[in-house]
Design brief:
single chain; alpha+beta; Pnp Oxidase, Chain A; four-stranded antiparallel β-sheet
Length: 248
């Protein structure tokens, strides 16, 4: 909206650092006024207000092109005492932005829904046809090749957790600062954690060994082969190298 009659004394009321609002007045189709409090900004001599599309004030501004308003900034820290300034303005050019619908269009249109289902079916069939022949050969061999690295990663993580490697930097910093009391406290905490975590890992390892022994003694051969394949696949996934940065 354009306004060239705002006196300089009232321009601070339109500054970005002032928490101000405006009462925007428009005309309804029956000629009665409709007043709405709105937030606004003042840039390059133009006052801009925000409105959702198809709201009454949006439709009224588009219909008549003229509005009136009163801007006011409340008293408070950093603000001047309340001052008001009525404004008569003409709508220059509305800019609209359609909000994303709550329900996608392909769910509201039967033809688009059928087309989307057909596309998903074709995409799924293509993915299955592409990857299925490679699972027992290329992918299985790749996972088997990477499984030792995955086993090493698991062992290293467990070892580091048991021996409290996550606090090693804190203890080293205490040594650099010659903080003897702090280092001794951290060392006692580490020893306590090592005992507790070592007990947990030992019990867990015993349970795993017992479970594997019972499983191999009772499960049919196909189930044992499937378990070995799944375990190898899991270790292979764990041994997959991470994404390397494009630049060092």
């Amino acid at each position: 909206m354009s306004d060239a009659t705002i006196p300089d004394a009232f321009l601070p009321l339109l500054g970005d650092d002032v928490k101000a609002f405006a009462n925007l007045a428009t005309l309804l189709p029956d000629g009665s006024p409709q007043v709405t409090p709105v937030r606004f900004d003042y840039t390059d001599g133009k006052i801009r207000v925000n409105s959702a599309k198809a709201r009454w004030k949006d439709r009224n501004m588009r219909r008549y092109g003229r509005v009136a308003g009163a801007a006011q900034a409340g008293a408070g820290p950093g603000n001047q005492p309340p001052r008001r300034r009525p404004v008569d303005a003409v709508l220059l050019s509305p800019r609209t932005h359609d909000n994303r619908p709550m329900v996608p269009g392909w769910l509201r249109n039967r033809a688009e829904f059928r087309a989307r289902v057909v596309w998903l079916g074709r995409y799924g069939a293509h993915s299955v046809g592409f990857h299925a022949p490679r699972i027992p050969t290329l992918y299985a061999a790749r996972l088997a090749w990477r499984s030792p690295a995955g086993g090493w990663r698991v062992a290293r993580l467990v070892f580091g957790w048991v021996f409290d490697h996550e606090q090693a930097g804190v203890r080293a910093d205490a040594v650099r600062r010659n903080a003897t009391t702090e280092y001794l406290t951290l060392s006692r905490q580490r020893n306590q954690r090592v005992r507790q975590r070592g007990t947990v890992v030992a019990v867990g390892l015993l349970l795993v060994i017992t479970g594997v022994w019972v499983f191999t003694a009772t499960a049919p051969p196909w189930a044992q082969a499937l378990a070995v394949a799944l375990a190898g696949a899991g270790l292979g996934v764990g041994g997959t190298p991470g994404v390397q940065p494009a630049l060092p």
